[in-house]
């Protein structure tokens, strides 16, 4: 199995606002295979594709709000097809009247598939904390959409922070996880975390379990234990994703994450 490694742009978004292409070059030099975009910072599809080709990088995908995608799917999908995106992560899915949302996603997924793309949903902690009809919101979304319509992009760190069982989600939706986010973090007591997104970008204080994001392999996420389940999903991509580097150099953090993940993969039987 060949799994490609992608860097997200969220952790270096301020640098992207100044010079996106300089960021892409640094990530290529660090050894990443591809990029998960967070918008294109004013650049056109053609010039982004040219820069990616020049640097030998692939476009894993981009994050797009559901309301924007539903309003003009063809234009957005054509743009991302020109960039070369393999996936499109649908953000901010509304849960009210979800049956209609699911029907809309069916139509959008058909258009995406015709362009060689697949739709993903990426969880944060909220989708594990919030309940809909007695289920975690994440499970509700997945159980009320077709697998061929919406794949899961499990963010293991956010999943655990939200109180979810990473092993259960990876096993239950094994055939639906082509991209996996290996977010890591530190917490002295997860029962104190609450909604982490309420206090980031600050670290958590003692009342919030001393929470902080960490490079992959340097926190409390038990990735050696979870890796066999990750591999059973036969993912196309791993994403080294931990949101914040605080006072540390984010590029050094990303390189630590990349090196750790590749070393761990070499140890798998």
Structural features:
269 residues, alpha/beta, eight-stranded parallel sheet, two-stranded antiparallel ribbon, 42% helix, globular
Describe the structure concisely for a colleague.
With 269 residues, the protein is α/β, with parallel strands linked by helices. It has eleven helices and twelve strands.
- Give the termini distance in whole angstroms: 12 Å
Sheet with most strands: strand arrangement? 8-5-4-3-2-1-12-9
Rg over C-alpha atoms, rounded to the nearest angstrom = 18 Å
**Category by helix and strand content:** alpha/beta
3D architecture notes:
- This protein is an alpha/beta fold and 269 residues long.
- It has eleven helices and twelve strands.
- It has helices at residues 13-30, 45-55, 66-71, 73-83, 98-114, 126-129, 137-143, 156-161, 166-172, 223-232, 250-266; strands spanning 4-8, 34-37, 58-65, 87-91, 118-122, 131-132, 135-136, 151-153, 179-181, 184-186, 212-214, 237-239.
- The protein has an eight-stranded parallel sheet with strand order 8-5-4-3-2-1-12-9. A two-stranded antiparallel sheet has the order 6-7. Strands 10-11 form a two-stranded antiparallel ribbon.
- Helix 5 (98-114) links the parallel strand 4 (87-91) and strand 5.
- Helix 9 runs parallel beside helix 10 (223-232).
- The longest helix has 18 residues, at 13-30.
- The radius of gyration is 18 Å and the shape is globular.
- The mean pLDDT is 97.
């Amino acid at each position: 199995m060949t799994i490609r490694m992608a860097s997200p742009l969220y952790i270096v978004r301020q640098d992207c606002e100044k010079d996106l292409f300089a960021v892409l070059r640094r990530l290529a030099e660090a050894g990443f295979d591809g990029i998960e975009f967070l918008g294109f910072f004013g650049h056109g599809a053609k010039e982004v594709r040219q820069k990616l080709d020049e640097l030998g990088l692939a476009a894993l995908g981009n994050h797009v709000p559901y309301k924007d995608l539903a309003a003009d799917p063809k234009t957005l999908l054509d743009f991302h097809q020109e960039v070369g995106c393999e996936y499109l992560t649908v953000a901010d899915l509304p849960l009210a009247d979800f049956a209609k949302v699911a029907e809309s996603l069916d139509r959008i997924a058909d258009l995406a598939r015709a362009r060689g793309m697949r739709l993903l949903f990426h969880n944060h902690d909220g989708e594990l904390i919030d309940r809909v009809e007695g289920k975690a919101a994440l499970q509700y979304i997945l159980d009320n959409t077709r697998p061929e319509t919406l794949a899961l992009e499990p963010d293991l760190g956010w999943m655990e922070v939200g109180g979810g069982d990473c092993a259960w989600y990876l096993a239950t939706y094994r055939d639906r996880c082509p991209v996996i986010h290996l977010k890591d973090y530190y917490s002295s007591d997860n029962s104190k975390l609450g909604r982490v997104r309420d206090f980031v970008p600050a670290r958590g204080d003692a009342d919030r379990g001393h929470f902080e994001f960490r490079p992959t392999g340097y926190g409390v996420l038990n990735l050696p234990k979870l890796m066999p389940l990750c591999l059973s999903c036969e993912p196309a991509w791993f994403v080294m994703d931990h949101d914040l580097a605080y006072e540390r150099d984010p590029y050094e953090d990303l390189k630590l994450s990349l090196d750790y993940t590749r070393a761990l993969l070499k140890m798998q039987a």
